[in-house]
């Protein structure tokens, strides 16, 4: 077995190297190896000081999160770090890549830290619903002060080397050969009799006595529902109030509380799910990818423009095609305005804006698309127009070009079938605003070739999206479940709830907004037009106008018209209840002979969320999503499902599939089969006492 930690002496300096791909995670073997190598270094008379570093891509990037939930194995990381901190020789951490979490804590156990100029350091445990559990909350405040340490710990964002140096987090930034730089630095320290500096012996600087109260107030809204950011505050406060060893006990207690919490279990699930989702079952890892060097987008409207921006942002030239010059000009103007807004916030330079704009080449002619590698169609959401576009694409695009549609509900197989190359056709469903939302539903048609799927899944990551491979059905995964939830939300109001009551329940559960605020944002006309299509096609479900459709029919489209389900003051997006809407709902109930009843928050939560879980089970049975994690990732990245609940399917296990199934059966009896016919998979899991994840 290769040594996961090796020791050598170089020019009188002992060098300890962790070699445990892919990210030198601090698993049990690495922890033991670090202790053994330290012992070797201390015994080595030639070694006047010790450097600790990582081989491959990075300094240790944290504890091995695959060990979480398993019985702890000694040596524990805090003990390893204590051994380095109390070593009889001066120690220097040599950092490249991403020294994160436990990796950063190992570096804090050393006397000095040297970082490569491209390195980043940080304590991202909070993003896993945890907090630094190997002394980070006690040592970092002793190194850089509580005021600077608190946001690094409670927000978990990486700190680039230059900023880390400015904060005093690292002592030296080098370029080129990191280990050589660190060895030279260590030798200089020894020759100048530099002291060892165990952080446990340092006092904690606290500039602002109100730091903790002010910080807690500042994160209350953004971090609502999360637990770990608030425990991070407690741990750092302990560093300012308790002796080191007491503070370490407090940190351990808080860490163990979080480790057991449902929030952290959910957040750790999401960490793996958002990586696993890129591995499509059935698509071999070595499937060849097609080269994507140039792209075209058809349609310069809101979606087309946003989609084009994603490629320009990734440095990929994109042809933007419209049928009319004024539409093209308007589309480009919106794109430029988006970039300039970002530049005004300091997140882009004017030079970046011009560079990205130059990558977007407008055209009115399909004949300009002959050499592009991928085309994404983003035109009006009606089948006739999409078919006409794909006929043109089939005519002009080179063999092997991938032809994608951004449709959000239409049948990708039907679109593919009108081309001579269905194997090159798939859906790429972006979420609005396309240049912001990270979710990309990659819709695999019956005939879509494996290498097309593999290429598009890789491309998703390249343009900064989280791509999820889904099958063809009305609404794919996200919107299909959303439609069910909307149906329940509308029905609950018909039965007696108010729109603001329904929205508050879903907002308090953790979604960024309630169903009706969301409809007002997307535009009531969007759903209304989709149902008009279904009405025209004779869909029995879509015949009767709901109270929401009645609002749309009156031109109340939501934010875009200043009024929808709620009303909006000029320049203010806050949804406000509207007496006119309450009157329309009352009238609607009278017309339908409905006597309004008291609807509890609990019923709202169960009907809006259990209907989604039931639909998710059907989506899994039909193979529209391959795994429950695909459904979870869609809802987290497409709709803001709270990360601390893990996604609808992970959350269903937390509630208990049996509990949900029993309620689905109860609702089926009361509300009928349309929305509440239990999914066979849900029944099967409930009867077997299993969950979607809990086998
Ligand atoms: N443990 C185990 N495996 C890990 C891992 C980790 N900490 N981090 C990444 N991997 C795997 C990942 O699953 C993938 O595996 C491969 O490495 C590449 O990852 C005590 C308790 C380091 C910035 O939170 O942020 O320390 O799919 O695709 O985009 O206080 O991974 O190839 O088989 O993400 O280049 C704290 C988490 C842990 C860092 C690299 N550390 N990792 O990003 O590659 S808790 C973290 C990351 C802790 C202590 C506490 C990123 C990355 P596979 P990747 P990447």
Summarize the topology.
Blueprint lengths: L4 E6 L2 E6 L9 H16 L5 E6 L22 H9 L5 E5 L2 E3 L1 H7 L3 E5 L3 E3 L13 H9 L1 H10 L3 E2 H7 L4 E3 L3 H14 L19 H9 L8 H14 L2 H17 L1 H15 L18 E4 L3 H12 L4 E4 L3 H20 L5 H10 E4 L10 E4 L5 H14 L5 E4 L6 H6 L7 E6 L8 E6 L5 H13 L3 E5 L7 H18 L3 H11 L5 H8 L1 H13 L10 H7 L25 H13 L9 H21 L6 H12 L8 H8 L1 H15 L1 H4 L3 H9 L7
Parallel strand pairs: 2-3, 3-4, 4-6, 5-7, 6-9, 10-11, 10-13, 11-12, 13-14, 14-15, 16-17
Antiparallel strand pairs: 1-2, 7-8, 15-16
Could you explain the architecture of this structure?
There is one protein chain. This protein is α/β, with parallel strands linked by helices. The strands form 3 sheets. The protein has an 8-stranded mixed beta sheet, with helices on both faces. The protein has a 6-stranded mixed beta sheet with strand order 1-2-3-4-6-9, sandwiched between helices. The chain is globular, with a radius of gyration of 28 Å. Helix 3 (102-108) packs across helix 4 (136-144), helix 4 runs antiparallel to helix 5 and helix 8 runs antiparallel to helix 9. It contains 29 helices and 17 strands. The longest helix has 21 residues, at 601-621. It folds into 3 domains: 5-260, 2-enoyl-CoA Hydratase, Chain A, domain 1, CATH 3.90.226.10; 295-470, Rossmann fold (3-Layer(aba) Sandwich); 478-688, N-(1-d-carboxylethyl)-l-norvaline Dehydrogenase, domain 2, CATH 1.10.1040. It binds (2S,3S)-3-hydroxy-2-methylbutanoyl-COA. (2S,3S)-3-hydroxy-2-methylbutanoyl-COA (T1G) binds next to strand 5 and helix 3.
């Amino acid at each position: 077995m290769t040594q996961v930690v090796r020791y050598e002496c170089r020019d009188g300096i002992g060098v300890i190297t962790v070699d445990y791909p892919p990210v030198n995670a601090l698993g049990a073997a690495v922890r033991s190896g670090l202790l053994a190598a330290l012992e070797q270094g201390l015994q080595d008379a030639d070694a006047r000081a010790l450097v600790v570093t990582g081989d491959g891509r990075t300094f240790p990037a944290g504890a091995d999160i695959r060990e979480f939930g398993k019985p702890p194995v000694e040596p524990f990381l805090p003990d390893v770090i204590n051994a380095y901190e109390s070593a009889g020789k001066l120690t220097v951490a040599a950092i490249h890549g991403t020294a994160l979490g436990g990796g950063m804590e190992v570096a804090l156990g050393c006397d000095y830290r040297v970082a490569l100029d491209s390195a980043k350091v940080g304590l991202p445990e909070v993003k896993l619903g945890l907090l630094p559990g190997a002394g980070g909350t006690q040592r970092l405040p002793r190194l850089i002060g509580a005021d600077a340490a608190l946001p690094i710990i409670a927000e978990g964002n990486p700190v680039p080397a230059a900023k880390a140096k400015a904060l005093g987090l690292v002592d030296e930034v080098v370029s080129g050969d990191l280990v050589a730089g660190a060895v030279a630095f260590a030798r200089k320290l020894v020759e100048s009799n530099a002291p060892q500096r165990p952080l446990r012996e340092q006092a904690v600087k606290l500039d602002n006595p109100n730091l903790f109260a002010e910080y807690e107030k500042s994160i209350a809204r953004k971090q609502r529902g999360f637990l770990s950011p608030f425990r991070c505050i407690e741990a750092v406060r302990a560093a300012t109030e308790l002796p080191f060893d007491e503070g370490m006990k407090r940190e351990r207690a808080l860490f163990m509380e979080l480790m057991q919490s449902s929030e952290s279990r959910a957040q750790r699930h999401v960490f793996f799910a958002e990586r696993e989702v890129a591995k499509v079952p059935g698509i071999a890892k070595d499937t060849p990818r097609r080269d994507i060097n140039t792209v075209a987008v058809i349609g310069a409207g809101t979606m087309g423009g946003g989609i084009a921006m994603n490629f320009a942002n990734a440095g990929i030239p994109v042809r933007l095609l419209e049928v009319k010059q004024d539409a093209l000009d308007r589309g480009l103007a919106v794109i430029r305005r988006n970039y300039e807004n970002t530049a005004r916030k300091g997140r882009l330079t004017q030079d970046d804006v011009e560079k990205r704009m130059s990558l977007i080449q407008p055209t009115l002619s399909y004949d300009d698309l002959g050499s592009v590698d991928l085309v994404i169609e983003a035109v009006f959401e009606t089948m006739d127009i999409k078919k006409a576009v794909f006929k043109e694409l089939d005519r002009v695009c080179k063999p092997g070009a991938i032809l994608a549609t951004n449709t959000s509900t239409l049948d990708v197989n039907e679109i593919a079938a009108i081309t001579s190359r269905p194997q090159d056709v798939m859906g790429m469903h972006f979420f609005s605003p396309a240049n912001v939302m990270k979710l990309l539903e990659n819709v695999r048609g019956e005939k879509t070739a494996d290498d097309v799927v593999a290429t598009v899944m890789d491309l998703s990551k390249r343009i900064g999206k989280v791509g999820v491979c889904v099958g063809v059905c009305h609404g794919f995964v996200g919107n299909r479940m959303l439609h069910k939830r909307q149906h329940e939300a509308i029905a609950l109001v018909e039965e007696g709830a108010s729109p603001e009551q329904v929205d508050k329940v879903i907002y308090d559960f953790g979604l960024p907004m309630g169903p009706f605020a969301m409809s007002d944002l997307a535009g009531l006309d969007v759903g209304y037009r989709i149902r008009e299509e279904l009405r025209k096609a004779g869909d029995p479900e879509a015949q009767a106008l709901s109270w929401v459709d009645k609002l749309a029919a009156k031109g109340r489209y939501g934010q875009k018209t200043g009024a929808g389900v709620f009303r909006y003051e000029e320049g203010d997006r806050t949804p406000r209840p509207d007496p006119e809407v309450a009157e329309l709902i009352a009238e609607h109930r009278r017309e339908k002979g409905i006597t309004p009843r008291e609807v509890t928050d609990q019923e709202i939560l169960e009907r809006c969320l259990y209907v989604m879980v039931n639909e998710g089970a059907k989506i899994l049975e039909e193979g529209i999503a391959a795994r429950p994690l695909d459904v979870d990732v869609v809802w987290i990245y497409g709709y803001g499902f709270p990360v601390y609940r893990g996604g609808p399917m992970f959350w269903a296990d937390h509630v208990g599939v049996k509990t949900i199934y029993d309620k689905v059966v109860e609702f089926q009896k009361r509300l009928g089969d349309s929305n509440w016919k239990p999914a066979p998979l849900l029944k099967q899991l409930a009867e077997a006492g299993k969950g979607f994840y809990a086998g």
